[in-house]
Design brief:
Elements (H helix, E strand, L loop, with lengths): L15 E3 L1 H7 L2 E6 L11 H15 L3 E7 L3 H12 L3 E7 L20 H8 L2 E5 L4 H17 L4 E3 L7 H14 L5 E6 L3 H10 L5 E6 L6 H16 L11 E3 L12 H14 L8 H13 L6 E6 L3 H5 L5
Parallel strand pairs: 2-10, 3-4, 3-6, 4-5, 7-8, 7-10, 8-9
Antiparallel strand pairs: 1-2
Helix pairs in contact: 2-3, 2-6, 3-4, 6-7, 6-8, 7-8, 9-10
The structure holds pyridoxal-5'-phosphate.
């Protein structure tokens, strides 16, 4: 067996427990995987990916990691903390509200100040803020930043948005081992795709169905997911060959667009808080939980169901944009 280098950042395994009140209300056997409690830099799903991504960066002796995201990106926060641990500089190109030109810019407001921004400053992240534009423009800004530092003689690695590279997806193929089989459904938020891709890969060929609830209206998500699972095939030397039809993702709970809270998401956040004392965020886990609630109520999802809580608490605490 090939061993993929890994550093330790998280407190694993994260807890997994039943939600009694919501199980009763929904008529399903509902459990939750608490990756909001990964225990590193405020928690969230990115810590798992970073254990592999940082191991690679440390191995090649890089001096700076450059990434991109929204201004309230949970990934930028967790990457910044991971870089601090290994004495690597961290730079991120950010926009308030990156969007997909094909769908237009959402009219609602993204989260404002505080939240992840407060933590980014603590972790020493260099944030470069750009005017709102298409995702591809944001990616180009990150490329340019990496070039800028390379021109200064630094060894720089670009980390894709959300840590969605094969190593990030591999982390979630590994995470599935913590909860094992015996689920009828596993439901998770999906955006840059490596969480969903890793879980879909892990459960491929079993009786567990994995459903990703999309948090942005991306056209090419199926392509991204397939690219990531092909990457897991290569890393794990166990080729499962997933194709686009193997990914079940739902776009019905995106709301107004990526990074803009939705009424259904806000309602789901309240319900989870007031029945189970759980904290979901308005950009990812709240919208995905809104999806789970409706899928359970309309009978699409039944039996033994696991919701994968991906974190995001700092965004819940960010002030609304003025
Ligand atoms: C990044 C993120 C997601 C989405 O995970 P991907 O692997 O990027 O699809 C979901 N929830 C939270 C809180 C996140 O920060």
């Amino acid at each position: 067996m090939r061993v993929i280098p890994r550093v330790k950042l998280c407190c694993l395994p994260t807890p997994c427990h039943r939600l009694d009140r919501l199980s009763e209300e929904l008529g399903i056997d509902l459990w939750i995987k608490r990756d909001d409690l990964t225990g590193f830099a405020g928690g969230g799903n990115k810590g798992r990916k970073l254990e592999f991504i940082l191991a690679q960066a440390v191995e090649v002796g890089t001096e700076r990691l450059v990434t991109c995201g929204s201004r309230q990106s949970n990934f930028v926060r967790q990457l910044g903390a991971a870089c601090a641990r290994f004495n690597i500089e961290c730079t991120a190109a950010v926009m308030d509200l990156p969007y997909d030109q094909a769908y237009g810019k959402p009219t609602g407001n993204p989260p404002g100040e505080g939240g992840n921004l407060t933590l980014d400053e603590l972790f020493g992240v260099e944030l470069r803020t750009y005017p709102d534009d298409d995702w591809l423009v944001l990616f180009q800004h990150a490329k340019n930043l990496a070039q800028e530092y390379r021109a200064k003689g630094e060894h720089v690695i670009e980390v894709p948005i959300g840590g969605s590279m094969p190593l990030g997806a591999y982390a979630f193929a590994q995470a599935a081992v913590e909860v094992g089989e015996g689920w009828d459904f596993v439901v998770c938020p999906t955006s840059s795709g490596s969480t969903h891709a890793g879980l879909a890969w892990a459960y491929h060929g079993t009786s567990t169905r994995v459903i990703g609830v999309s948090c942005d209206p991306e056209e090419d998500l199926a392509d991204d997911l397939q690219r990531l699972t092909t990457g897991i095939d290569a890393l794990s030397e166990s080729s499962k060959g997933l194709t686009k039809k193997d990914f079940d993702f739902r776009r019905d709970w995106v709301g107004d667009g990526y990074n803009v809270p939705s009424p259904a998401g806000s309602e789901a956040i309240r319900l989870a808080a007031r029945t189970e004392g759980l904290l979901f965020d308005p950009v990812y886990s709240g919208k995905a939980f809104a999806g789970l609630l409706e899928l359970a109520r309309n009978g699409t999802v039944s039996g033994r169901v696991l919701f994968w809580h991906t974190g995001g608490l700092p965004t819940l605490l960010a002030s609304p944009r003025a």
